[in-house]
Specification:
Layout: H1 7-14, H2 18-39, H3 45-60, H4 70-88, H5 106-113, H6 118-126, H7 135-145, H8 151-158, H9 162-187, H10 193-198, H11 208-220, H12 234-238, E1 243-245, E2 258-259, H13 260-265, H14 268-273, H15 276-291, E3 299-300, E4 312-315, E5 364-370, H16 377-384, E6 386-390, E7 406-407, H17 419-428, E8 431-433, H18 448-459, E9 464-466, H19 480-491, E10 498-504, H20 511-526, E11 530-537, H21 549-565, E12 569-575, E13 589-591, E14 594-595, H22 597-604
Parallel strand pairs: 5-6, 5-12, 6-7, 8-9, 10-11, 11-12
Antiparallel strand pairs: 1-4, 2-3, 13-14
Amino acid sequence: MARQSDTATVIAARAGDPAAVDRLVAGYLPLVYTIVGRALEGHADVDDVVQEVMLRVLRNLGDLRDPESFRSWLVAITVRQVRERFRARPAAVPLDPELRDPGADFTDLAITRLELSGQRRETAEATRWLDEEYRELLSLWWLEASGELTRDEIVAATGVGRQHTAVRIQRMKAQLETARAVVRALNRAPRCADLMVLLDAWDGRPGSLWRKRIARHTRDCRACAPAWENLVAAERLLTGMALVPLPINFNPVLSTATPISQIQAVPVKLAAKAGSSLAQKVLVGVLATGAVAGGGAAVVAYRAPAEPVNAAVVAAPEVSRSPIAPPTSPAASPAPSLPPSVAPSPSKSAKRTSAAPAAAAEQSAKKGVGVWKCAGAKGALKDVGAGWYYSWAPSDDEVPGPAGVEFVPMIWGKANVTDATLKQAKAEGDVLLGFNEPDLAEQSNMNVEDALAAWPRLESTGMKLVSPAVAFGGDTPGGWLDRFMKGATEKGLRVDAIALHWYGSDFSAAAVNQFLGYVDAVHKRYGKPIWVTEFGLINFGGPQKYPSDAQKVRFIEGATTGLEKRSFVQRYAWFGLPAVGDSVDFGLYKDGKTPTEAGKAYRAAG
């Protein structure tokens, strides 16, 4: 979900501007659903709590003194409403599992709609086994791990200190790891005979007592003990997971003049299942009739809804990513970022309709592409209107570009930090890209200490330095990039801009805001210019999947518009230029003058 509430939008919404409120609701209703839904396990109370949160936010927006704190304020209100719902029920009476709304089961939606597999699926299933005291924290930490919230926002929302929050999160994560081992043992085929005996009295419902019993068995049983082995850190599995959209079962439209009493009575559950467009109308109507601005109108006029924005019910990951970057797994790279002279990794191919040649696009200084050696690269670079490009190499010897299109060199990894490569890079220009995805074993695979030790060699070139480009989690406290930037500050090293990669596995209209939200979050964390050196739509979960032409075009148009508007974004580059062989599903050009549909959209960008 995008962090899209800029100060101007909040101020306008606070003044009662329906269009501004529309943007706030569209951007934050998914976040509220995610926090409440996961905290309440998809219980029937979810819709009531979400409605209470959103109406409270709109009614009290006028009292928000600092518009820049809107996001933290919203999260804090959401957490308070969840707690109030827990306090309102009789003591020692748990949420009745029978009252869960099957259509709002976050875990099932994460598994089925995102096609989760392997350890991601196990992690999603394991959340059902957590103690109730950790459910609120889980809903927040899940969003932190997937790049939707920061640790500071969690601390502000829970009202406890940073150290206390850290301790609680570690305890919750330890319980989650135990639950993952339990899920593995239960899913093993065939199940251990001794475990079958133990489970004879189990009613099939996850709970703390049976979690402890099954976990104790797995530790003591030779057959079940492997359930504890090779557990990838949950943060890595969740990073970048996309929000799961609710199905649009129907799309009722309110009349163009609806009494405010009727509007307030429409349940959020109905609005969400109709798509966020109705939810926006309901909530915008409340605000426009005086909830914030103080007006007394009793009738609301609605404009025709645009394409519905799906409400979300679970933070899952697309991780890279990144959040939001593509989903990662122990055996798969979250992004096809490659060293020089290596062909791209995606293997799926599909036929594409040839596009007719067109005049070269007007050049954008920000717009660029990642290019590997291919026929027609020079012509395609000129035709697409790129202001710059790179090839993961220290020089353009292998992929020369046309006059007027800047080549930016890269020092790809530790082995490339040599006098010869640094000399090559310095001869190419005045900007140098740092290491490529050092947080991935299949890419440059560098620990933070080695990267910091090598950085002074890059500084010695006198060039402007762009940070190492992590595959995901660029805004995650304690992540690879966070530790690198902290170490650079402590050692007095110079980093002039931040590089990031992002791949989305959610091919819906929400992908644009997921991507731009990650860009905003990274910039907010480090306060430096941003270079998006790889981005695109690819689902790396299991067999690689790719969006349709229409989905790629929609994403490119929205993403590039947002990047061009952001003054702190200095450069961005699509992955990648060639659309041949293994890259036909995501590349831009079949040859020097034949763009794909995505290529035509990217050519028009900027």
